[in-house]
Task: inverse folding
């Protein structure tokens, strides 16, 4: 069965502002104020909570190390979970493109490095969870992307066929995951890395979700 698996943050949904807000809540709690900018630091937000904390601490004239990141990380997750869908929105055309794929008989699922519980909550808040036949998060298995295991599990749970799968993502992690799993890869150019993803030589680039059905059909029929 033909299958399309999506990354979540930076691919389906623009979660940057809410992620940055969670990190800044940690910094405010330590008396430092907001150390991250929701626009300038968006690319770091899509690389995870620890990356945001590391960036913020690096901007202080103080001796902060991995221990401080480890201490704040659970607090960041708590803050993010409580305010997970304040500014987050689906990228334009995502809902319509997914509906078209499903109507055309494709299986669809999600493979993300966001913790599974947070991904479930976010998709429920966006009223989008029922669209997807599978959701594999960073902690669903003992491995995470770019290991191919989570992608293969997402395809399996969606009822798809790995030999006829496209992974839609936004970063080098998704490109490496698709390569390791031996499937096609589309990278969006509206994500954190923009047009620079072309350097990763994916099987196709996606400037808008309006183009997704045609690109998927080109790659897997």
Result:
């Amino acid at each position: 069965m033909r299958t399309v698996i999506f990354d979540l943050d930076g691919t389906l949904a623009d979660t940057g502002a809410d992620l940055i807000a969670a990190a800044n809540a940690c910094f405010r709690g330590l008396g430092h104020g907001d150390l991250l900018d929701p626009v300038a630091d968006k690319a770091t937000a899509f690389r995870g909570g620890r990356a945001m904390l590391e960036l913020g601490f690096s901007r202080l004239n103080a001796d902060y190390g991995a221990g401080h990141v480890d201490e704040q990380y659970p607090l960041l997750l708590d803050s993010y979970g409580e305010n997970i869908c304040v500014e987050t929105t689906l990228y334009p055309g995502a809902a319509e493109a997914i509906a078209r794929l499903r109507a055309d008989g494709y299986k669809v699922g999600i493979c993300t490095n966001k913790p599974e519980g947070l991904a479930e909550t976010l998709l429920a808040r966006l009223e989008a969870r029922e669209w997807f036949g599978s959701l594999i998060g960073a902690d669903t298995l003992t491995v995470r992307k770019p290991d191919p295991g989570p992608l293969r599990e997402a395809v399996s749970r969606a009822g798809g066929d790995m030999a006829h799968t496209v992974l839609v993502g936004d970063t080098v992690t998704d490109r490496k995951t698709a390569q390791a799993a031996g499937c096609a890869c589309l990278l969006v150019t509206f994500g954190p890395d923009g047009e620079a993803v072309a350097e990763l030589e994916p099987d196709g680039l996606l400037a808008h979700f309006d183009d997704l059905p045609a690109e998927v059909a080109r790659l897997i029929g």
Notes: The chain has a mean pLDDT of 96. The chain has two domains: 3-14+89-220, 16-82.
